[in-house]
């Protein structure tokens, strides 16, 4: 017996576009002639050059950044941070994403609480930091304002065929949408990310503050440089860059170990509860915005209802569907990540031509009959996620979301082992972080304003011929 394998079942793969490729620098060199007067063809250099990969070479959004944005990115590195600390600057505040705390605590071989205290003590002793905080206060506001906007939209929108709203907290997806898919911009929910809202909250405490954010994604550097997010974050670095910094400084990790739990309180801004801003919430490891919306609708629905969790056609799609006793959908939201899934989403939401799926036969050791996805043949009576019929899609450019961020520490070189390690880190994320209930706290969550992006969709231009000569991947 055979089962069927479609290309949707394959791992995520990003095909670079010609517009993102770089011209090869062609240098004219002298002919290689040996001592016998013979020409040598293809002679290799005797000295090896150090490999240097810059941020502009690879972003989750497939690398489509401009030269002006590349200049902006130079403001976000550990060397720039160290230079700033050697100049006159305002009080230092450090915010760190939960995914980064899990990643770095594992690398240093510490329990999460032990690492949190170490991190606070390090920035306190080395850089005289005033505050060191987690991102949950900012995330709570993102969740609250996301739910409020979705509920308002759902009450206003009566068309059953209306398209879902899309999250914009992933800068890789946001950049991709603004630059290459401006037709999707009206579907974007303009609520800012926890990183930016946290920065805004800190600057409300002291506008002169220097805010360093430790983020799991390089793309977050571009988010900090958006015109609508000016001055919320002064510098963004990743855990990998943090490691490079402590190596450059020749830091002995043991010098900053401490058991002083009072640091968690002493280095929180006035009114900030460390048991909240160092915590997390239910849902995905990228923020849980889809889950929180459906859970809010469940709690506020009059009558019996049930939340179903439906798997997608691959591991990077999941739907939360709220149904009543008659199995009618009350509300739904989905998680979707990875560039291949994003491309499929774009085709569905923009009405583009659907790709013809080539069905491949996969040999199996057993006799089970596979599912024929392409022609409606024999099917297992099981429901699957349909994110494009959801009210809301939580989109992330990185396959698996922020927990698979390119800036996190993963020393495995083998692709399978890297994936297994990421799964291990995600399990720790759910097990080690204290869980709070943002919905139960919505009345307590204070926000002085709506924290919103101002989208900048690209103006469509006439297609230009792209020369292929001298270009390389």
UniProtKB/TrEMBL annotation:
<dbReference type="GO" id="GO:0016226">
    <property type="term" value="P:iron-sulfur cluster assembly"/>
</dbReference>
<dbReference type="InterPro" id="IPR004108">
    <property type="entry name" value="Fe_hydrogenase_lsu_C"/>
</dbReference>
<dbReference type="GO" id="GO:0051539">
    <property type="term" value="F:4 iron, 4 sulfur cluster binding"/>
</dbReference>
<dbReference type="InterPro" id="IPR009016">
    <property type="entry name" value="Fe_hydrogenase"/>
</dbReference>
<dbReference type="Pfam" id="PF02906">
    <property type="entry name" value="Fe_hyd_lg_C"/>
</dbReference>
<dbReference type="InterPro" id="IPR050340">
    <property type="entry name" value="Cytosolic_Fe-S_CAF"/>
</dbReference>
<keyword id="KW-0408">Iron</keyword>
<keyword id="KW-0004">4Fe-4S</keyword>
<keyword id="KW-0411">Iron-sulfur</keyword>
<feature type="domain" description="Iron hydrogenase large subunit C-terminal">
    <location>
        <begin position="92"/>
        <end position="405"/>
    </location>
</feature>
<dbReference type="GO" id="GO:0005829">
    <property type="term" value="C:cytosol"/>
</dbReference>
<keyword id="KW-0479">Metal-binding</keyword>
<dbReference type="GO" id="GO:0016020">
    <property type="term" value="C:membrane"/>
</dbReference>
<protein>
    <recommendedName>
        <fullName>Cytosolic Fe-S cluster assembly factor NAR1</fullName>
    </recommendedName>
</protein>
<comment type="similarity">
    <text>Belongs to the NARF family.</text>
</comment>
